Amino acid sequence: MKLPWTNWDHVIKLDPDKELPQNVSYEDVCSLGTDAIEIGGTTGVTSSKMEKVIQACCDYGVPIYQEPSSVGAVVHHENIDGYLVPIVLNSDSSAWIVGAHKEWVKLDPNIMWNSTWIEAYIVLNPNSAVAHYTNADCNQTPEDVAAYSIVAENLFKQSIIYIEYSGIFGDPVTVQAAHDALSSSSLFYGGGITNYESAHEMKSHSDTIVVGNLLYEKGISAVKETIRGAKDAS
Question: What residues make up the domain containing 101?
Answer without folding.
Answer: 10-233
